Amino acid sequence: MSDFDYDLFVIGGGSGGVRAARVAAGEADAKVGLAEEDRYGGTCVIRGCVPKKLMVFASEYGEVVQDARNYGWDLKEGAFDWKGFKDSLNTELDRLEGVYRSLLKNSGVDSFDARATVKDPHTVELSTGETFTAKHILLATGGRPVRPDLPNADLGIVSDDIFHLPELPKSILIVGGGYIACEFACILNGLGVEVTQIYRGAQILRGFDEEARGLIADSMKDRGIDLHLGTDIVEMRCATEEDLEGHPDGRIPMGTPMHEDPAMHPEGGERGGPIWVKATNGRARVFDAVFFATGRAPNTVDMGLEEIGVKLGRKGEVEVDKYSQTTVPSIYAIGDVTDRVNLTPVAIREGMAFVETVFKGNPTPVDHELIPSAVFTQPEFGTVGLSEEEAREQEPVEIYSTSFRPMQTAFAGRSDRVMMKLVVSKETRKVLGCHIVAPGAGEMIQLAGIAVKMGATKEDFDRTVAVHPTMSEEIVTMRKPVRSA
Q1: Is the model's pLDDT at 67 over the cut of 50?
Q2: Model pLDDT, residue 248
Q3: Which of 171, 206, 212, 290 is a plausible cystine mate for 156, CB 3.0–4.6 Å?
Q4: Cα 480 to chain center, whole Å?
Q5: Of residues 49, 50, 43, the one with CA closest to residue 141
Q6: pLDDT over 80 at 167, yes or no
Q7: How buried is 129 (Cβ within 10 angstroms: 0-12 exposed, 13-18 middle, 19+ buried)?
Q8: Rounded distance, CA 132 to CA 123, Å?
Q9: What region does 60 belong to: left with phi over 0, alpha with psi -120 to 50, or beta?
């Protein structure tokens, strides 16, 4: 008989934690407990990937009517019903949470709706007062959005809040230049919100391919997003009647200077009301809402980890080895709480590798190389492998790239452009990176990712017959490099 209550206790009911728990219980016959303090499904299902993608779909229908007219259909435009959409969204999220709960129950996992902390290397304590011992503890607590260190930053919203807005704002300021900021800028713009986005860097989507970043930024501007680079907030507060005087809609052009008055800095106020913001360029404006997309932090606060010897990094992330094991041998960690590659499919892979290593006797390191990913801007961005800039620092490369107006939107009279790009090693001829900016790029990059992961060469791509007429055929028809480095 085991000396522990459980073979495994998982803290966190997101995608990674649920997968590890149910596979350990269902395939390795382990006795498993799991605690989740919020909703099952975690960030991805409840407040991230899934509701965001449904909002992406909703935002894209705004252009359908005009496009359809240009294709000969007699259609009339309608208004977007945020409340109706949100009701349907909540129904779908409730359904998905029920699926996650059922998966755990059907696998024999004991679930606890409570916050869990770690008392010692083999003991967890729940907010209900219960304690359980476990041979192994798996941390899968994910991450959370953070606000910048700025007075009155609590007046703004973060990504967790966006799905719960009682109504859409007429105007919004989005602060940040990462994928969350850019995705929601496109979503809200598509839903009819007047969007201003500021980012302190020289270009959005830092860390991605430079050519792709530029095309996406240009496309966002063309769609009406007021994008300001090299800009940040220096001051924000609740708007006063004086701020709004003479501007009945509460929106003042970004280029309109406003006078300084120390009396116009009231404290307090409810989040989501009209907010006065001053930027580093000296300009000021009133917005209906301010949305901070300025980073995320691992959920490790007040969990008792450092007290028992679990080493945390500078951002609070749990430090682990290649097998997801922490500095305390009985405790492992997967997903965003480790701040390795913060993507849902990666967390699931890490959970599977953990079960293979700990419960199936098959030590399995996590493979974080050549992970395909997508940014759901408009147009979408799909990417796998090295950017052109990264590859050039590593070895001599050839760049195959093309940008063009796709047939579907060109016929409808839109100026949208797409891009297909391959980064190729001069020496080995392997495709080191593939980058696609186009509608459906997320779907395309999944398949291109297989070829890149297998080590396909440029000649392998060349030998593949094109599917015509498609946008993606350009990936296999580019014969001459546009530049070498």
Answers
A1: yes
A2: 45
A3: 290
A4: 35
A5: 43
A6: yes
A7: exposed
A8: 6
A9: alpha
Exposure letters 246-285 (e unless 16+ CB within 10 A, then b): eeeebbbebeeebeeeeebeeeeeeebebbbbbbeeebbb
User: What is the gyration radius of the CA atoms in the chain, in angstroms?
Assistant: 25
Report the run of H or E that residue 5 belongs to, with start and end.
none
What the block records as the tokens of 407 is 């047939």
SS3 call for 207: coil
Contact 374, 382 (CB under 8 A): yes
Q: For the segment 244-259, what is each residue's pLDDT rounded down to a tens digit?
A: 874 545 444 443 333 3
Query: CA–CA separation, 229 vs 109, rounded Å?
Result: 49
Q: Can you read off the two tokens belonging to residue 283? A: 């300009």
Query: Hey, what amino acid is at 423?
Result: V
**Residue 219 φ then ψ, to 5°:** -65, -40
CB atoms within 10 A of CB 457: 15
Give the span between the Cα atoms of 243 and 254, in whole angstroms.
13
Residue bearing tokens 């006065």: 276
**For residues 67 and 63, what is the distance between their CA atoms, to the nearest angstrom?**
6
Angle formed at CA 146 by CA 145 and CA 151, multiple of 5 degrees: 150
In the chain, the percentage of residues whose pLDDT exceeds 70 is 94
Pairing mode, strands 194-199 and 171-175: parallel
Please provide the DSSP assignment of 28-48 as one string: S---EEEE-SS-TBHHHHHHS
Q: Which two tokens stand for residue 173?
A: 């300021």
- Answer yes or no: are the C-beta atoms of 131 and 119 closer than 8 Å: yes
Instruction: Identify the H or E element spanning 168.
Output: none
468 is catalytic: yes
Q: Which of 136, 228, 247, 468 is catalytic?
A: 468
Give the model confidence (pLDDT) of 356-394 as tens digits.
Answer: 999 999 999 999 999 999 999 999 999 999 999 999 999
